[in-house]
Amino acid sequence: MGVPYVPVLGLLGSDLLKGRKDMQVLPDPFDPAHKTVVVKALRPEVALFHGLKADRAGNVHFGYESDNVILAEASRRVLVTVEEVVDALSEEERARTFLPGILVDAVADARFGAHPAGCPDAYPVDDEHMAWYAAQSLDDAAFADYLRQTVFEAPTHDAYVQRFVPEGWGQSGQRPLQVAGS
């Protein structure tokens, strides 16, 4: 959004303000008799999203309600992976759950790109993989091994999908996934 700070209600008098250099209590500019908490705006270097579809102009359809636009506007760069790239989004897809291409720096076609998390209207959360991830994340050495197996040893996204995405996803009750143009 490009603002330097944001007023936040409900923090005045809380312990959350102790030792926080990114929060200050200042006079309300409209009524100096009242105090308000302001928080320094975050400016992420990169925002990464995964959606259902994107068109060739970089417009993205997520398929679920979110405030992704706010994060995209605040970020310096916006990268998006999607289940499918199409020539153009439909009018309905552009009307809701939408990120305009003007905010997007790059789009990559990455079927199952949200795995092991789910992608609404495409596939569910992979509960077994998430349990494995959670268990491995409790220990630095175990998590390093998890990263080695799932990130560093998978030479391509397709290799990751073949190794870790459960067989049959995108079928049996889930919306069949198709590559654009097929």
Plain-language structure description:
The protein has about 180 residues and is of the alpha/beta class. About 25% of the residues lie in helices and about 25% in strands. The radius of gyration is 21 Å and the shape is globular.
- How widely separated are the two ends? 38 Å
Radius of gyration: 21 Å
The shape, in one word, is globular
What does the largest sheet look like? 5 strands, mixed
* Helical segment count: 5
What are the low-pLDDT stretches, counting only 5+ consecutive residues below 50?
A: 171-182
Q: Which bin fits the share of residues in helices?
A: 10-25%
Task: Count structural domains.
Answer: 3
Major sheet strand order? 7-5-4-6-8
Question: How is this fold's topology laid out?
Answer:
Blueprint: E1 5-8, E2 23-28, E3 31-40, E4 46-55, E5 60-61, H1 68-74, E6 77-86, H2 91-95, E7 98-99, E8 106-109, H3 127-136, H4 140-152, H5 157-164
Parallel strand pairs: 4-6, 6-8
Antiparallel strand pairs: 1-3, 2-3, 4-5, 5-7
Q: Main traits of this protein?
A:
3-stranded antiparallel sheet, 3 domains, single chain, 5-stranded mixed sheet, 8 strands, 182 residues, 5 helices
